Amino acid sequence: MTSHPEPRDGEMIRTTFDAVTEVLAPDVLLVRMSGEIDIASTDFAAEAIRAAVAPPARLVLIDVSAVTFCSSAGLGNLVEARNLAGEHNITLALVGVGRPIDRPLTITGLGGQFRIYGTVPEALADL
Fold first, then answer.
1. Which three-class secondary structure state does DSSP give residue 39?
2. What average pLDDT does this structure show over 98-107?
3. Cβ contacts of residue 123 below 8 Å, gap of 6+?
């Protein structure tokens, strides 16, 4: 997805974001997010999260290793994922958390509210 919000003063704002969901097992989903999660892409991120973090899934991994930027809107997407998982009794984990995600999670104190793993195989082995 490439978003082109309304230009201001002749400027074009371009945000590149993608989310691909993979079924690893009948009740295990992997959502691979890439690009920038910001105000221009937050609706698309929310759609991907809502589609994945729902029954019959029992485990959802969100791979953020290819995310290059995460705004407060992006953090809101992750918090929504955590809340939906709790409502549906689904285990949720973040995978591949690099600086673009780690920094805002740390600054806001949200990091301790997520299960975080370095790789998908590591998460699957533990969960």
1. coil
2. 96
3. 61, 93, 95, 115, 117
Place 4 in a pLDDT band, splitting at 50, 70 and 90: very low
Tokens 């995978």 sit on residue: 95
The tens digit of pLDDT for each residue in 46-68 reads 999 999 999 999 999 999 999 99
Q: Where are the domains of the chain?
A: 2-126
Helix, strand, coil share (%) of the chain residues, nearest 5? 35, 35, 30
Give the right CATH number for 2-126 from 2.40.30.10, 3.30.1700.10, 3.30.750.24, 3.50.50.60.
3.30.750.24
